Amino acid sequence: MTKLSRRKGAATDLNAPLATSVSNVICSLMMSIRFQHEEEEDEVEGERVKVVDDTSGPRFRHFMGLIEEGFRLFATVASVNFVPILKYLPGLKNAYRKLEKNRLEMAEFFQETVDVHRKTFDPENIRDIVDTYLLEIEKAKEEGRGELLFDGKNHDRQMQQIIGDLFSAGMETIKTTLQWALVFMLHHPEAQRAVQEEMDGVVGRKRLPTLEDLPYLPYTEATLLEVLRRSSIVPLGTTHAATKEVNLNGYRIPKDTQVVPLLHAVHMDPALWDEPERFRPTRFLSAEGKVTKPEFFLPFGVGRRMCLGDVLARMELFLFFSSILHVFRVECPAGASLPSLKGNAGVTVTPDPFKVCLVQRPTDAEFLSMGGGGGVSDGSALRYVGGH
Ligand code: HEM
Per the UniProt record, which residue ranges are transmembrane (predicted)? Predict the structure, then answer.
């Protein structure tokens, strides 16, 4: 926030700062790593000031590039799941080759992380998810069941995959939803003002919002729910398969049939939602002003294989979104047109690149210096990479 405020409302593409911040959450939990926001000087209102770089260090930038490319390529090759013969098309063969090359490069990065953890491992001080796995592997070996772990598959290879899955599932989704939230706030300044007024009343102007505030901020929560519904960033969920023949509403689904949950179709069904195209947060509020979620609201899927990270996702979305809107008014740069509401389909549906002006809202105290409650720790116990 402090770094963004230095831009003094100049048009900014938030893609890179959001990618770095969101990555830092999942990377701290998984492997105690944070990436640095790189700073550089820029001319703002005729003055040279330090601002957040539009990119975040070469190593991180490269890493992010691999993830983003992976998401795009994955969508390209998805057609093969339905028409297998397509895999012989030269374009798709190339996409597969590129995906494999990128996967190997990322696996190398993850393996380095596992190796560093192994060298510094202390069973009395479990630092993160990688340590938790290492501890479990140690225990399993001691108890003579090491061979059974991960169905007998290579432990390191499995850890590489888990880190990769959590990182890609936990970063791109949050970043994209936050970008859509900003796009909808630009299109609906009245909703933005309502969120800000609610936070001003509940949180006040001396600190940032915290998770404890969430139950008292129904309009803010409803706005995020409407962003999740309207953007449906994972429109096809993930492909499942029937493990046995089932009968669903009179339809016979044979064993092994692939099942694609059309979450976007559910979220935009006019039989379920009044005027589904319209962005209207109040549809998630009861007459008493309480947050209410119908059972057909499924941004994280449904059932035993629904999103593993939904609790973390909801916390992150709230903290990032509410903090940005509490500190800044989000405006469209002068002369620019509003970003399109039409997304670009990959594994997730992303908005076109866009810039926003973050105009600092008046504060009672200098909470941007992060001295007050709800400030952001510098995570000094964590290992920083990427930005230097
Ligand atoms: C706005 C944020 C997010 C959205 C909208 C979202 C949505 C989804 C959806 C729709 C699925 C498929 C569920 C199904 O097929 O039934 C899924 C699966 C998954 N998500 Fe998320 N997700 C988000 C954030 C996260 C985060 C932060 C993490 C990790 C920390 C995560 C990890 C996963 C994993 C591991 C799966 C696969 C679960 C399985 O197959 O058992 N997601 N997510």
Answer: none
